[in-house]
Amino acid sequence: MFAIYKKELNAFLNSLVGYMVIVVFLTGIGSFMWVFPAYNVLDYGFADMETLFMLAPYIFLFLIPAITMRTFAEEKKAGTMELLLTTPLTDWDIIFGKYLSALTLVLFALLPTLFYYYAVYQLGNPIGNIDSAGTFASYFGLLLLGAVFTAIGIFASALTENQIIAFILALFFCFVLFQGLSSLVTANDASNGAYWLLQLGIDHHYASVRKGLIDSRNLVYFASMIAIMLMATKLVLGSRKW
Fold first, then answer.
1. Are 160 and 73 a contacting pair, CB within 8 Å?
2. How far apart are CA 64 and CA 210, in angstroms?
3. What is the pTM of this model?
4. Fewer beta carbons below 10 Å: N end or C end of the chain?
């Protein structure tokens, strides 16, 4: 698994893809946090990072599929997928290696935003007037969200040899699970169906974690979504052997 992880991570970092992901993410979030009048912290008047945690999921919707679209699709198109599957590595070694390398790149994109936290911390009146516990709970939620989107992207890439199709599929799946399901529920709908649609949607659990409600239900949900997507990827890879 480590060999695949190292190979994939080097492939990201030795090309423009990895750096473009980080630059686009930081530029997009930085523009909203510090430049655009409707969202920037300086005009907002409160020492918090709500803009980051509100907008980052929507940037992730495009950014993470762009990271994961090549993971399996490129191997299939280049004809190296069959060779990879005949190595002593198990399917899980391949899947986890590719998954963790893509997730590492997402983490690399998030880490520089800690400078935004430091800046807001210093700008507080008095200095340090920011809910640090809530901020880091939100960071944890954003990382969990990125982990689920990455698993979805890996699955989408395993379905096709076309990277563009893999990107579109991943974007579609991520959007439906993040906001599509909850969008079907009206504000005054208290039926069992509405309740379960909300529970199945990623945004409901992400919003809970952002509020600092890091309970077992939310953790189990994120872990289950990742496991389901990776197991679905395993089934797709397994079907190619027959």
1. yes
2. 20
3. 0.90
4. C
More confident call, 4 vs 182: 4
Which whole-number Å values give the CA distances from 221 to 16, 108, 169, 200, 224, in the listed order?
Answer: 34, 24, 22, 8, 5
Please check whether residue 154 is in contact with residue 225, taking contact to mean a CB–CB distance below 8 angstroms: no
Q: Helices (DSSP H) in the chain: which residue ranges?
A: 2-13, 16-34, 41-44, 50-68, 73-78, 81-85, 91-110, 114-123, 132-158, 163-175, 181-183, 192-200, 202-210, 216-239
- pLDDT at residue 111 greater than cutoff 60: yes
Q: At which residue do the structure tokens 């911390």 appear?
A: 121
Closest alpha carbon to 141 in 60, 77, 75: 60
- Separation of alpha carbons 131 and 124, rounded Å: 11
C-alpha 160/C-alpha 155 separation (Å) is 10
Instruction: Give the angle 173-179-182 at the CA atoms, nearest 5°.
Output: 120
Helix (H, G, I), strand (E, B) or coil at 204: helix
The overall average pLDDT reported for the chain is 84
Contact predicate 65/170, CB 8 Å: yes
Matching residue, tokens 């208290």: 190
Confidence of residue 64 (pLDDT cuts 50, 70, 90): very high
Assess contact for 47 and 131: CB atoms under 8 A. Answer: no
Query: What pLDDT is recorded for position 242?
Result: 41
Identify the CA nearest to 7 among candidates 82, 93, 134. 93
